[in-house]
């Protein structure tokens, strides 16, 4: 578990002071993947550097498994650093070392015996899908493969936390997918807690359990992705759910139906069956006016603008809501123009 408590950090320069982190608090449960997102300049990299102990915050705490890292010095600080594997923003492999040689670096620094090193490097190459590239030098690897070697190197000393700063920013979509798969495997197979700094909500969509949205040094949204997408007006729902607004000229079209609502459905059962079942159970005509389906990690999620016609339209929406869907009714415009 990583707990960031009220972290502040300002940069002081000749042209004045820039507040990069302004009381940031967040919790990342053990064994989850958390995305830190936000516009350029929001403070994401500063937060990552503070958590990686590469930068000293002005105030606040960073607790990893209960230990406040900010207060540590000397050998305790060095030991704490080993608990945090860092995948740097830029290509950071040593050019004169092979993939295996790069991955072995932290193990050499920790004084691990040769045989243990060799075994661990083989395991890690396998984890990142590069078992056949052990002897390749960085220049003989693609950008995505180099990034996977950097992840393997960050995992070499068995850290409890893996911190990746924009791990996919320079990669094409296919390569991005392979890097994200590796981060997901690190969590699933090694139980590592993963913090991914990214400006790309696609990363959140694919692998994050949790997300923290930073804006001008503050956390403006934080929680489970699947909870945040059900909250009306959340930035996460806006960025990750299919849009319903632009499909129809709402006022005109809504008027043709008895009841209209925006419905968010989460999970296989809800997405697959809830709406047709409601239609047949309550004998209402069901029309989808907008929206669509998507997938958040392994979970199917849908947002539809649903129109119902029939005497039981209200009861049908109540029933859908009782089964866990989020139903936001829209004011129904009657054919004559007055709101119902
Ligand atoms: N070393 C520094 N010296 C002075 N100001 C800095 C320094 N590093 C960052 N800043 C400023 O702090 C603020 C937060 O920067 P930071 O790099 O943490 O944001 P970010 O969200 O990671 O942005 P990006 O997505 O562009 O990398 C910005 O206003 C930035 O200009």
UniProtKB/TrEMBL annotation:
PROSITE patterns: ABC_TRANSPORTER_1, ABC_TRANSPORTER_2. This is D-methionine transport system ATP-binding protein. The keyword Acetylation does not apply. The lineage of its organism: Bacteria, Bacillati, Actinomycetota, Actinomycetes, Pseudonocardiales. It comes from the Bacteria. One of its GO terms (biological process) is amino acid transport. Keywords: Amino-acid transport, ATP-binding, Cell membrane, Membrane, Nucleotide-binding, Translocase, Transport. Residues 2-241 form the ABC transporter domain. It holds the Pfam family NIL. PANTHER family: AMINO ACID IMPORT ATP-BINDING PROTEIN, METHIONINE IMPORT ATP-BINDING PROTEIN METN. The keyword Plastid does not apply. GO terms for molecular function: ATP binding; ATP hydrolysis activity.
């Amino acid at each position: 578990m990583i707990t960031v408590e009220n972290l502040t950090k300002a940069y002081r320069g000749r042209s004045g002071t820039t507040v990069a982190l302004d009381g940031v608090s967040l919790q990342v449960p053990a064994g989850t993947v958390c995305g830190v997102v936000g516009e350029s300049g929001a403070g994401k990299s500063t937060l990552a550097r503070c958590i990686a102990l590469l930068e000293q915050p002005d105030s606040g705490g960073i607790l990893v498994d209960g230990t406040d890292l900010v207060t540590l010095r000397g050998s305790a600080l060095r030991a704490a650093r080993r608990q945090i594997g860092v995948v740097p923003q830029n290509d950071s492999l040593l050019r004169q070392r092979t993939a295996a040689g790069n991955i072995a670096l932290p193990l050499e620094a920790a004084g691990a015996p040769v045989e243990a090193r060799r075994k661990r490097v083989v395991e890690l190459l396998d984890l990142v899908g590069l078992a056949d590239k052990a002897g390749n030098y960085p220049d003989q690897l693609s950008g995505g493969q180099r990034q996977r070697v950097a992840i393997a190197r960050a995992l070499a000393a068995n850290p409890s936390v893996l911190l990746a700063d924009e791990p996919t920013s320079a990669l094409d979509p296919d390569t991005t997918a392979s890097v994200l798969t590796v981060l997901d495997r690190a969590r699933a197979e090694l139980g590592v807690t993963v913090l991914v700094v990214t400006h790309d909500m696609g990363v959140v969509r694919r692998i994050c359990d949790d997300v923290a949205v930073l804006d001008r040094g503050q956390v403006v949204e934080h929680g489970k992705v699947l909870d945040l997408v059900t909250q009306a007006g959340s930035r996460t729902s806006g960025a990750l759910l299919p849009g319903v607004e632009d499909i129809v000229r709402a006022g005109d079209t809504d008027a043709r139906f008895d009841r209209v609502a925006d419905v968010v459905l989460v999970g296989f059962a809800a997405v697959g069956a809830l709406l047709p079942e409601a239609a047949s159970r309550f004998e209402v005509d069901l029309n989808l006016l907008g929206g669509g389906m998507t997938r958040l990690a392994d979970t199917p999620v849908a947002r539809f603008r649903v129109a119902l016609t029939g005497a039981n339209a209200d009861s049908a929406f109540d029933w859908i809501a009782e089964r866990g869907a989020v139903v936001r009714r829209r004011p129904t415009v009657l054919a004559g123009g007055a709101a119902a």
